[in-house]
Every structure is written in structure tokens, then in C-alpha cells.
Amino acid sequence: MNLQVQKNTLYVGGLAEDVNEAILHAAFIPFGDIKDVKTPLDQATQKHRSFGFVTFLEREDAVAAMDNMDGAELYGRVLTVNYALPDRIKGGEQGWAAQPIWADADTWFERQQQEQEMQRLQSEQRAAMQVAEELHRKKMAEERQGEKEEDAEIKSDPMAVAEAEILSQTT
């Protein structure tokens, strides 16, 4: 499965409980301008879930931060820094664990309807193509049949055969 990563957004795992968004911002600001910092909360405890996301304005800054901060220590914990996966794969900003299982139901039904409509249109298009191909085959067969009948008429009429020979010799 080939997933497109968000090259400006980094996943930062292994955060200590004391680390908040301001501390995470301060740790990563030396590498470039930061667009956004998020630490998704656990709904039960209202504390972050030991990871966060840092989004840089420039891709090069994100690369530099990842190269320097992956394996670095922050508040006594070793960080894991990678490119973040897109939200649509993870399940939104808070991830699947923070969402009820039916949260994606509406979009799922919409996607199903769109897929069914696409399949219907494709089958209609295939059917139309088959009809067009069949008509073309019939027309070609009729033309071939007409040529055979003309050839048969020419061969049965001695004057037509002689005329055809003369025409072929003059050209």
C-alpha cells in the first residue's frame, strides 16, 4: 500500500506527560517557522496521548527537524520523529481511538453511492459500446456481402467479366 505522507507535518512520539504544545513548539522552532502544533488529548484523562504533530511552513525545515530530533531526548524521554500520515488515513485530528465507530458512516454511505453510480455509468457506457460495435460489424458484413454479390454477378455475366478485364488492363 503506497500512502502519501504529509511532508511538512511531523509525528512526534514518546512525549513525556509534562510536555505541552508550547514546550513542543519551543523544542522544534530552531529548525524553522512552525505553522501548527497539536497534541491530541485522551478523552478520558484529558491529557495528551504521548504524541503530537508539528507542521512546518517549509518542507526543508521539517526534514531538518526530523533528522535532528528523531532519537533526541526531551524531558527525559527519547523522541520518535517521522512524517505524519494524512488525516483521512488516521481518522481525523484525534485518530480512530477518540471517535465512535459510526463517525465515518455518513461519508461511507456517500462513497458507496458514488461508487454505485460510477459502476452504473460504466456499465451503460460498456453496453453502448457493445451496441455500436455490433452495428459496425453488421454494416461491415453487409458491405462484404454486397461485394460478394457484385463479384458473383460479374462472374456469371461474360460481358461483365470481359469489361472488368479490359478495365484492369488499362489502369
From TrEMBL:
Matching Gene3D superfamilies, A to Z? Answer: 3.30.70.330
- Where does the source fall among the domains of life? Eukaryota
- The keyword Kinase appears for this protein: no
Q: Which CDD domains does the UniProt record give?
A: RRM_PPIE (cd12347)
Q: Residues annotated as region Disordered?
A: 137-171
GO terms assigned for molecular function: RNA binding
State the name under which the record lists this protein.
Answer: RRM domain-containing protein
Cross-referenced SUPFAM superfamilies? RNA-binding domain, RBD (SSF54928)
User: What organism does this protein naturally occur in?
Assistant: Dendrobium nobile (Orchid)
Q: What is the lineage of its organism?
A: Eukaryota, Viridiplantae, Streptophyta, Embryophyta, Tracheophyta
Q: Which Pfam families match?
A: RRM_1
Q: Which InterPro entries match?
A: Nucleotide-bd_a/b_plait_sf, PPIE_RRM, RBD_domain_sf, RRM_dom
Instruction: Output compositional bias ranges, type Basic and acidic residues.
Output: 137-147
Alphabetical keyword list:
RNA-binding
Query: Boundaries of each RRM domain copy?
Result: 8-86
